[in-house]
Structure formats: C-alpha cells, structure tokens
Automatic annotation (TrEMBL):
PANTHER family: MITOCHONDRIAL RIBOSOMAL PROTEIN S5. Signal peptide: none annotated. It comes from the Bacteria. Belongs to the universal ribosomal protein uS5 family. The N-terminal domain interacts with the head of the 30S subunit; the C-terminal domain interacts with the body and contacts protein S4. The interaction surface between S4 and S5 is involved in control of translational fidelity. This is Small ribosomal subunit protein uS5. The lineage of its organism: Bacteria, Bacillati, Mycoplasmatota, Mollicutes, Mycoplasmataceae.
C-alpha cells in the first residue's frame, strides 16, 4: 500500500534560481540571482569610493557658521533637532557649505561637514592670494561686494564671509555687505562673486586678442633659429 501511494505521487521539481534566475535563462558570470550586478562587487565598489572620498575630505577644514535648535510638531508630540550650518575649504581654492540636522550636535556637524566637502567648488585666485577685479555678488536679498587688496592687508570682512574667504585660502581682500544678513544667502552671494572672476588672459581670449594686444604691451620676441652651419662653426 505504501509503495503504491509513493508511485502515484508526482515528482517535485525544484527550480534552481541560482542557475536560471528569476526571469529564466542561464545566469551569467558576475551576476546575481535576480540578473543584476553582484551585490558583493557593488559593496566593494562602494568601499573603494568611500576610501577615496575620505582621503579627499581629510584635506578640508571645517568651520561652524551658525547653530540653532529647531522643532517640529507631530502626532507623537514635539520633536526638537539641532540645525548646523558648516563651511569647508582646503585653503587651495576649493570651498563648500552645507546644512546638517540631527538630534545630537556631533551627528549634525558630521553630516554638514561631509556634504560641504562633497559639494565643494573651485574659485579663482591670483598668485598674490587675492581676486582679479571688483565684483558685486548677488543672491536673493543679499549683496556682497568684493575688492582686491594690497599685500599685507589681510581679510577685511565680517560674519560668514570672512570664514569662507579664509577657508578658500585668500590672504588679502576687502568685503562689504550691502544687503540682507541671512548667512546662507551671504555665502551664496560670496561664492557667486568669486566664481564670476576672470583672469586677464581669460578676458583677452573672450575678446579674440592676445594678452599683449589687450594691455598694449610689446610683443614677445620670437626665439632665434640656429642653423646647423652656425652650430658647426
């Protein structure tokens, strides 16, 4: 009786997902069960990217611009958080800023510092550590006027603008706030003024002229070509 019942049972065929995948077909080398890139390789790539990013972030210096406590009302009650505005720079012409929020100050600062370094932009700077020309940066209601200064003047600015300029690596510069005092708008207006700088050679290129023609300088002497006969003599 037991043998008859076992013979009448249909054989159960197990579906090999590792071989055929969810959608059928042979599984290729280096692919997961679902047919995508292997999770192991993705994890290794992320680790390598994080290592490279940590090396880049280590070059940056951070400064806190503003800290405040914010709260939000939910069904469970009022939740309070720390809001941190951080600026970061490598003192070699790269600056960025970001906002971090968390229940603890240290976590909020870490989030903001990491994002500021990741979103940093390059700003032009001449060999003397100042800007090329005067410019008025604008963002919303903020107006930041930047002027080049002589060597030894230092950074004459206030609030978040001074911290940002020092982190960028500028040595001598005048700055004046002509608009609203919102720190985020002031930072954006300062970055706008810095990124709008154009070197003399860049201006000459935009006008389809050489550097000497633009500033009425004598042309550079062409190098002398020495023939073989002169070398032998």
């Amino acid at each position: 009786m037991s043998s008859a019942t076992t013979d009448n049972k249909k054989p159960v065929h197990s579906y090999d997902y590792r071989r055929f995948g969810k959608g059928g077909g042979e599984q290729k080398k280096g692919e997961s069960i679902l047919g995508g890139a292997s999770f192991l390789r993705e994890g290794e790539q992320k680790k390598e990217e994080e290592k490279k990013f940590n090396v880049q972030v280590s070059e940056f210096e951070e400064k806190v611009i503003k800290v405040k406590r914010v709260s939000k009302t939910t069904r469970g009650g009022r939740q309070s958080r720390v809001w941190v505005l951080v600026a970061a720079g490598n003192r070699k012409g790269k600056i960025g800023f970001a906002i971090g929020k968390s229940k603890e100050y240290s976590t909020a600062f870490y989030k903001a510092a990491k994002k500021a370094a990741k979103t940093a932009v390059r700003v032009p700077m001449n060999s003397k550590g100042t800007i090329y020309h005067e410019y008025l940066g604008k963002h919303n209601a903020s107006r930041i006027l930047l002027k080049p200064a002589k060597e030894g003047t230092g950074i004459i600015a206030g609030g978040p603008v001074k911290k940002l300029l020092l982190l960028a690596g500028y040595k001598d510069l005048y700055s004046k706030n002509l608009g609203a005092n919102n720190p985020i708008n002031m930072i954006r207006a300062t970055i706008n003024a810095l990124q709008s700088q154009k070197s003399p050679r860049m201006i000459a290129k935009l006008r389809d002229k050489t550097f000497e023609e633009l500033f009425h300088l004598p042309p550079k002497p062409e190098p002398e070509v020495i023939s073989e006969d002169q070398l032998e003599a």
